[in-house]
């Protein structure tokens, strides 16, 4: 173990025991001395992303959770179904830190990177729901002058995902995109990028309010999956844009299959003659989220044979795109942090508040438009 | 239109009218004179493949079919649901020939290919459920000495599909295979190829009888999807073979997802540590058939993020593999037509018998192991 650097801080931890009990708590830990190439960041802002909730809860259901402890040191317990334990065998009894990304101020710096002391930086890579985070200096992004930790907290997951969609589109030979849950923070970023870059984007939303929000931001193609003319409107938008690649945050239910079927209908309208096996134009939908955790269901007859469904995950996708592309995308995020990649939060909360029943219910509901920002230095009792 | 060559023959035709009536019948047509590079083949044997049934019936259901006409000139009529017509708009009112492949004797030959007269050849490319078939000589395969039309009738679809699976496996960087409906003619061929080439193959069957059949043919890994230990047996076989690519003839229901989940379970057992998003080993299942025409259903949690599902179709797959590979595969089929690629038929029938109720019900049932061979020169009244 590294020697302590004299600082102590709280970390939010998630632990699932072998007998199937999830426990969430704040742990006071001594912050280690940084190595020569490392820094200690005092975390000032870190968002609650859907991807954090998976690590936080595992397969436990929030409905039956018990909220105990004190206001300053809450403890949440929930039981995990025995059948779900084998899939997470490797995490049982381990105390896992949570939180993919955040930003703050460098309060300790190793010998090789002392110049970073006092700088504001953004960090990605886990364990950010904490007051302090040790990190390799090379993995951090020094925030530009005039950028606050609030501005930089969500610098990685959503911006790099939105840019990753566009780069994947280019890599795989498509020319336009479909996106679901399109009114999300991520969706709004993608819309801005596509408008700026002249890329056709079909935004699928779930309410007229979300449609109005995106149209207000200049979106050209917005279809409401709840509207009675959804299929026809989607097919028309696909015909106009020529989109043959979709990114779906919903995952469960019929939506991904409906997108493939509408892509195929658009392709058949554009083709001449009868092809028993359908269009030979390849249609692809990647499932990158789990807003609907139920099973995915699709019919094959309306989609022909030239189709693919697959998982899409940011880190492997970036790896496939290559280091040079990733560096280019990071540069764009830094330059446009307060414009294209600005995030909007419903509420700011402390680490302790992140474990209160009403807060947890709100962020675990995964409703588009609800987004929380944790300020780990706030309300420490 | 080309001038007639003096021959007349029957062709089985499928027509769906704009008002939604399917009509199957035998049409007497004048055989055209072949062009300089063409031949006329007197078709002596042509199989009923699952892929033919799609063209034959379209979206019509056989249950409500009416069987009329005479014994020598049967006519089958069935109604097509109005909702299904838009997807097949391009074939409405067209009289479509049926039958992907077959073999016979060259009875007319164009000026450039007179040397083929009297030869036995195999043909692929549609319109084979007929007494005569005009074809480009270059598209035909001259059958080796001692090979009958019965031996050569199923020379293309199943053999090239089985070989195509293996080549796709190599092209996409996998090292072993999973196959469903593995006791089919195609499955038996694939098993022979994998045994000969030393490729790990997990055969998924639906009954103990099918398992015994494949084991009798030397299959090393056979799992029965109806057995209570299916998931455990499949995972064990995937661990032993390292198969991360599956070809699924069933299509509907949970099977493809079960295969992906078992591949992921095998990959997680082999990995160390806890990875919230699952294994990063890519797992792929291609759906190439529709034995179950119901919706495809899968759960995402057990399969992680590194997975793909997609359609697989022989002709585009061969195109992707390239002309040199296709030529090599054709050469292997020719050399092993009476061994590896021998087909087994349940019954031999005439063109007229192919439209009888009991025959149609048998081949449309798509039961593994049932396979019909049409002899178009037989029983012509």
UniProtKB/TrEMBL annotation, chains A, B:
Keyword Oxidoreductase listed: yes
Residue ranges of coiled coil: none
Molecular function terms from GO: NADPH binding; oxidoreductase activity, acting on NAD(P)H
UniProt protein name: Zinc-binding dehydrogenase
Keyword terms: NADP, Oxidoreductase
Source species of the chain: Siccirubricoccus deserti
Membrane-spanning segments: none
Domain Enoyl reductase (ER): 20-286
Keyword NADP applies: yes
PANTHER family: QUINONE OXIDOREDUCTASE PIG3, QUINONE OXIDOREDUCTASE PIG3-RELATED
CDD domains: ETR_like_1
């Amino acid at each position: 173990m590294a020697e302590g650097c004299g600082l102590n801080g709280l970390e939010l931890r998630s632990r699932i025991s072998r007998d199937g009990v999830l426990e969430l708590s704040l742990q006071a830990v001594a912050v280690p001395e940084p190595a020569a190439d490392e820094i200690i960041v005092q975390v000032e802002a870190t968002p609650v992303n859907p991807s954090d909730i998976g690590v936080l809860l595992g397969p436990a259901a929030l409905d039956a959770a018990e909220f105990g402890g004190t206001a300053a040191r809450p403890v949440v317990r929930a039981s995990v179904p025995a059948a779900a334990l084998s899939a997470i065998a490797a995490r049982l009894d381990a105390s896992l830190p949570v939180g993919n990304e955040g930003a703050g101020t460098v309060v300790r710096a190793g010998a090789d990177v002392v110049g970073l002391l006092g700088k504001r930086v953004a960090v990605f890579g886990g364990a950010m729901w904490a007051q302090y985070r040790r990190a390799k200096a090379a993995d951090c992004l020094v925030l530009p002058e005039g950028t606050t930790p609030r501005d930089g907290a969500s610098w990685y997951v959503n911006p790099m995902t939105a840019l990753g969609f566009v780069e994947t589109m280019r890599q795989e030979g498509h020319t336009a995109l479909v996106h679901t849950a399109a009114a999300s923070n991520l969706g709004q970023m993608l819309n801005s990028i596509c408008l700026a870059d002249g890329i056709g984007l079909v935004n699928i939303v779930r309410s007229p309010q979300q449609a109005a929000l995106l149209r207000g931001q200049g979106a050209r193609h917005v279809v409401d999956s709840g509207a009675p003319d959804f299929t026809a409107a989607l097919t028309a938008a696909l015909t106009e844009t020529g989109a043959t690649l979709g990114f779906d945050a919903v995952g469960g239910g019929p939506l991904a299959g409906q997108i493939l079927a509408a892509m195929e209908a658009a392709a058949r309208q554009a083709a001449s003659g009868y092809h028993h096996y359908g269009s030979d134009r390849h249609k692809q939908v990647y499932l990158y989220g789990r807003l609907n955790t139920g099973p995915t269901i699709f019919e094959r007859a309306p989609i022909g044979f030239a189709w693919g469904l697959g998982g899409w995950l940011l880190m492997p996708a970036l790896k496939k795109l290559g280091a040079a592309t990733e560096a280019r995308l990071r540069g764009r995020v830094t330059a446009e942090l307060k414009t294209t990649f600005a995030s909007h939060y419903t509420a700011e909360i402390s680490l302790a508040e992140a474990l209160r029943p009403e807060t947890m219910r709100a962020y675990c509901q995964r409703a588009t438009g609800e987004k929380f920002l944790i300020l780990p230095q706030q309300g420490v009792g």
